[in-house]
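Hey team,

Sharing the histidine kinase run so nobody has to redo it. Sequence (216 residues) first:
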Amino acid sequence: METQPAKNNISSYIIQSQEEEIKRIALELHEGVGQTLYSLYTGMQFIEAAVNLPDLKGYVGDMGQMLEKTIQEIRLLAVELHPPTLATLGLLPAMKSYLKLYTSTYGITVDLQNEGVEVQISERESITLFRVCQEALANIARYADTMSASILFHWEPSQLLISIKDQGEGFDVDTAMKKSTGLAAMIERMCLINGTCKINSKIGEGTSIEITLPLY
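Structure output:
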């Protein structure tokens, strides 16, 4: 029978391989498709300025707006896949950058608070924490039916605590765990970096997610 450490190693390898591929796709979206669309958008603006017929001018303007919206969606998708600031600036700046796009896309305001002194953590830990927070925020957008949420980063000498809360509809955790692979993935991802993820929710009272990462 396969031992738990062996399973963890396999899961960790699969996740790492996925992250490398995700990083490649995100870069291609941003540097390739995104830049091409922006060039088309710039050309469309030039054409709109040169057109004199009102009907044609309005049509070109509408096409330009569609391109602009598509560029915004591509940017959000690229950041969701792999935020460029994560490796260069760290977890907190990456989350702040992501939340701006999150709010502009879903209309949900997220209050981010940071307590204590930020400690440098590994890229693997940063990616894992970002993914878990990202999944929690995605669930809020899909199911919570709320316009606000909060994230608290609390740095202690021995651990990092992240608390994500909303006052939305809430759900039955036991039932959701049987149906949602996303919730199970959040817990498993944290286990792979020796952390924890605890999910608490009550119908009609909102949801609270407590994430803990030991700091060595």
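The chain has a mean pLDDT of 82.

Ping me if you want the raw files.
A.
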